[in-house]
Amino acid sequence: MHIVPESEVLAVQRELPIYKGNEGALSQFPIFERPIPKLHFYETVEMSSSNYIDSIKIHTIRIIGVSVASVVQLGNSECIAAESRVKHIRQLLPRKDEGDQSPV
Q1: CB under 8 Å, gap of 24 or more: what pairs does 6-10 form?
Q2: Could you tell me which residues are beta bridge partners of residue 87?
Q3: Per-residue pLDDT averaged across 29-34, rounded?
Q4: What sign results for the dihedral spanned by CA atoms 44, 48, 51, 57?
């Protein structure tokens, strides 16, 4: 089984809720377009396992939280490749000591 969770998040926090109507396109930000470098492992790993019982039984599991592109896994998986990209923007009003600038 292959598990490949992916997420792309654009989070904007504004001190004043001023919206221009044409915001939110992920393509505006290079972080969503750039390829993520992949790690390549060249070591060989020898492994042997013995499964005396072919099932997993879980009585209780308590999960407080799982974030984007994460996995809660019970059992085995052949491959897990998670990818998450987040662009977080905070737009605050200028303070008196910062001069007369418009919000970023």
Answers
A1: 6/69, 6/82, 6/83, 6/84, 7/68, 7/69, 7/83, 7/84, 7/85, 7/86, 8/32, 8/85, 9/68, 9/84, 9/85, 9/86, 9/87, 10/87, 10/89
A2: 10
A3: 90
A4: negative
pTM of the model: 0.61
Instruction: Give me the residue spans of the domains in the chain.
Output: 1-38+58-99
Whole-angstrom distance, CA of residue 52 vs CA of residue 103: 63
Averaged pLDDT of the chain: 84
What end-to-end distance do the CA atoms of the chain give, in Å?
Answer: 45
SS3 97: helix
1 neighbors 78 (Cβ within 8 angstroms): yes
